[in-house]
Amino acid sequence: MNILILGSGGREHALAWAVMQNPKCDRLIVAPGNAGIASVAECAALDIMNPDAVVDFAQNHSVDFVIVGPEDPLAAGVADALRAAGILCFGPSAAAARLEASKSFTKEICDAANAPTAGYAHFTDLDAAKAYVEEQGAPIVIKADGLAAGKGVVVAMDIATALDALDDMLVGAFGDAGAEVVIEEFMEGEEASYFVLSDGKTVLPIGTAQDHKRAFDGDEGPNTGGMGAYSPAPVLSDEIAAKAIAKIVQPTIDEMARRGTPYQGVLYAGFMIKDGQPRLVEYNCRFGDPECQVLMMRLGAQALDLMLACAEERLAEAKVNWADDHAITVVMASNGYPGAYEKGSVIGGLDELPEDSSNMVFHAGTKAKGEQITAVGGRVLSVTARGASLAEARKRAYAMVERIDWPEGFNRTDIGWRAL
Ligand code: AMP
Ligand code: GLY
């Protein structure tokens, strides 16, 4: 079959790598792709935010199946347009993608589904929001309602920080009319992510993961999109995972179906776990980046079968073949990330690295320049390895990092520390 993947990050490189290994895949196009993806698939220019353009492209290239990587095209209705045109698609409708696109919508669903999550209130009025913060005290969490590329959450350890965040998000007297914030109770505990497929009815877990959001070792420095991840996440034991499905995920899927907006695709649930009880932190309507890299490394070619079963509403008969393995990914980012960074530096040593079922360097922000690979993004590479233990996987990943010659980049040296 002909398959189109939308996106250009490490996540999409990992998806492409897994899909290509499956004999069902005859032709794979990734739009827009990147320099690493170009070594496993065809890359094509396409405005992936334009639903009509995506449908046209899919029809013109006889695409049988589209996998949508990032959240923005989903929120823009790309999956709706593809389904309306009769093209099989992996990814939720715009209405279902609101589970990520609107924090207040997610809270409303949790209420309706009786799913444990942080207590909250939502506001559009700055003074009312400030009064609520003063009354609740710190620590407290302030979230902008819409999609904010991971930047819309402030975990405020003191009142002043919380009030500043409200000023930023509700922009005071000059108020952006639509602006809304959710103010949440601060939850303590350990965080982990659970990735499940849903075809609208059936829920099929495909792996747990934990990421590292801070830029520097020891969880110091600014928040990033993720500097590394590993799977499985030991904190999500079988017992806690089963509770999370029964009390949070399945009731969410049932509530979405009841509303006539069934959720189809991967649901990425973030939980806070304390005293053996999971509570929902957030939902995302896509794979995490870099969490996808470790999931794909573990699932391999069967990832395509699972995504197809999801899109064809056959999840009840699907099964994951688990290997008793561990995977880890170390992100290499441009010096300065998540702030300003320079583009165009040359990355050496990539050619000599192993590329097999236990070792892969997935590309995120790279561009080919003649024979050379250059860095053009914040997060640039996801150096990913698999092993019989987390320690073994980690050793392999860092052995590859050592061999990459890129003075203009940096990485954390402690990915996986919590689990080891
Ligand atoms: P989100 O984008 O909702 O995942 O929030 C980003 C990060 O903020 C999460 O991964 C958590 O580390 C933290 N966070 C969000 N909500 C809460 C909460 N209610 N209590 C504690 N930490 C939170
Ligand atoms: N790694 C976090 C995310 O993809 O949202």
UniProtKB/TrEMBL annotation:
Coiled coil: none annotated. GO terms for molecular function: ATP binding; metal ion binding; phosphoribosylamine-glycine ligase activity. Its cofactor is Mn(2+); Mg(2+). Keywords: ATP-binding, Ligase, Manganese, Metal-binding, Nucleotide-binding, Purine biosynthesis. Pathway: Purine metabolism; IMP biosynthesis via de novo pathway; N(1)-(5-phospho-D-ribosyl)glycinamide from 5-phospho-alpha-D-ribose 1-diphosphate: step 2/2. Residues 107-312 form the ATP-grasp domain. It holds the Pfam family GARS_N. SMART domains: GARS_A, GARS_C. Its EC number is 6.3.4.13. InterPro entries: ATP-grasp, ATP_grasp_subdomain_1, PreATP-grasp_dom_sf, PRibGlycinamid_synth_ATP-grasp, PRibGlycinamide_synth, PRibGlycinamide_synth_C-dom, PRibGlycinamide_synth_C_sf, PRibGlycinamide_synth_CS. One of its GO terms (biological process) is 'de novo' IMP biosynthetic process. It catalyses: 5-phospho-beta-D-ribosylamine + glycine + ATP = N(1)-(5-phospho-beta-D-ribosyl)glycinamide + ADP + phosphate + H(+). Belongs to the GARS family. This is Phosphoribosylamine--glycine ligase.
